[in-house]
Inverse folding.
């Protein structure tokens, strides 16, 4: 999952809101019930700050609904209202997969639930969950057992709908609902691989080079770092800390503006600060 692809969706006229995820520069995934009855929604993505880390939310972009699933598949696809535009240029097409194993698979999702709202703005909640491919075999949904912080009422989940669910580096679904009769902490997600069972959706995905990969299981996901690929993040973090608070490294070499090498102190600080971080 990449924070650069998370979309805050809102429709001012209806007051409806939700979450989306960029599948490709000009194609986004959300839940069908988020956009049902609407031609489109306003979309906003996070912008990177000066250190390449998540910063302020970006400007509103107009989107249009280009495909909406049947009643038993709570998925929809969005494109920019301007057919010549993109939501974000510098993203690669995602890989979609289905689950292959009855063993519980570790998944995560990032969205904008009402529980995280402040008087000034909506905010994100990252959840980690376990899901089994053998729950709900006859339907189009996955059942997620949330393992981390969660809203204390079903209504406070609103806005999380449409959030992409990832098993490792593969997109497997989108949050659709809070099951009424299951215990607190359960979520349902529509299976993303079923997009490829819909002719019109398949055509849109193919045009954006979004592909269906091999199924994934618990062993595949457990072999990946829990928080994804940390490549480059260590140095980004250290540059931010040293640049903003130290200005000069411990051997007297200016850090500000260094972009193509580590100073000795920067390298030492990196190793110390991240000695327990996953590779």
């Amino acid at each position: 999952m990449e924070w650069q692809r998370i979309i805050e969706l809102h429709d001012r006229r209806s007051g409806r809101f939700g979450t989306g995820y960029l599948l490709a520069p000009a194609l986004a995934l959300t839940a069908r019930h988020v956009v049902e009855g609407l031609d489109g929604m306003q979309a906003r993505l996070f912008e990177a700050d000066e250190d390449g880390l998540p910063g302020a939310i970006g400007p509103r972009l107009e989107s249009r609904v280009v495909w909406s699933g049947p009643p038993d598949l709570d998925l929809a696809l969005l494109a920019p209202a301007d057919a010549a535009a993109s939501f974000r240029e510098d993203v690669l097409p995602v890989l979609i997969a289905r689950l292959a194993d009855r063993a519980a698979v570790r998944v995560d999702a990032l969205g904008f639930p009402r529980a995280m709202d402040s008087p000034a703005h909506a905010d994100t909640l990252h959840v980690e969950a376990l899901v089994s491919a053998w729950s709900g075999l006859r339907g189009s949904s996955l059942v997620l057992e949330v393992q981390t912080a969660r809203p204390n009422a079903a209504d406070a989940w609103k806005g999380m709908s449409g959030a992409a669910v990832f098993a490792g580096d593969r997109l497997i679904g989108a949050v659709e609902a809070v099951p009424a009769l299951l215990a607190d902490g359960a979520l349902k997600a529509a299976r993303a691989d079923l997009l490829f069972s819909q002719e019109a959706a398949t055509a849109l995905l193919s045009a954006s080079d979004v592909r269906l990969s091999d199924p994934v299981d618990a062993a595949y996901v457990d072999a990946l770092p829990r928080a994804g690929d940390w490549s480059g993040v260590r140095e980004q973090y250290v540059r931010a800390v040293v640049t903003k608070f130290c200005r000069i490294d411990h051997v007297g070499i200016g850090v500000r503006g260094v972009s193509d090498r580590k100073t000795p102190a920067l390298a030492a600080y990196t190793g110390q600060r991240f000695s327990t971080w996953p590779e």
